[in-house]
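Example for tutorial group B:
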């Protein structure tokens, strides 16, 4: 792998991570990415094998750390959406319980003045079954909006093998 490929990979990744830092936690990274430390030689033949291996190892380590930080940030966003949807469903359940309890008793008592108490209770139960179905559908729709796969991380990780082979972005 040439020096320009390694440094070019790193520069492109820095741009992508900089774009993602707006959504990532402030301490997700380990500070700024160090500049490519290979000497400005026209050919890697002037650089020792140990230096090349050291640079490649450091670059891969940095890349993996950045990918993990990006994945954590994306998963945290999806977990927040999930928590909000679950919280809405739980709140709807508690509120529905109290409403069901008190209004059901009042409606049952009111209908008992007009008809038999058994039929009044059945009518009240059917009304609340419809309301429960609507609340369930609303919460389920919110949970379906959750995407647990960190799409951007998967995309950038799929480019790593091509970059290691010397091509950029999947193009030979």
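The residue assignment follows.
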């Amino acid at each position: 792998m040439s020096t320009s490929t390694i440094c070019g990979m790193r520069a492109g990744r820095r741009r992508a991570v900089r774009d993602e830092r707006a959504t990532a936690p402030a301490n997700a990274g380990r500070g700024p990415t160090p500049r490519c430390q290979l000497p400005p030689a026209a050919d890697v033949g002037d650089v020792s094998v140990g230096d090349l291996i050291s640079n490649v190892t450091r670059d891969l380590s940095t890349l993996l750390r950045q990918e993990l930080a990006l994945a954590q940030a994306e998963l945290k966003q999806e977990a927040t959406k999930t928590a909000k949807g679950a919280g809405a469903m739980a709140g709807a359940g508690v509120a529905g319980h109290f409403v069901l309890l008190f209004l059901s008793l009042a409606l049952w008592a009111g209908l008992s003045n007009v008809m038999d108490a058994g039929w009044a209770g059945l009518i009240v139960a059917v009304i609340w079954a419809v309301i429960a179905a609507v609340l369930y559908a609303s919460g389920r729709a919110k949970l379906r909006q959750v995407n647990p796969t960190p799409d951007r991380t998967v995309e950038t990780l799929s480019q790593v093998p091509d970059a290691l082979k010397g091509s950029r972005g999947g193009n030979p």
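The helical segments are 3-20, 49-112, 117-144, 151-165. Compare this with the pattern of hydrophobic and polar residues in the output above.
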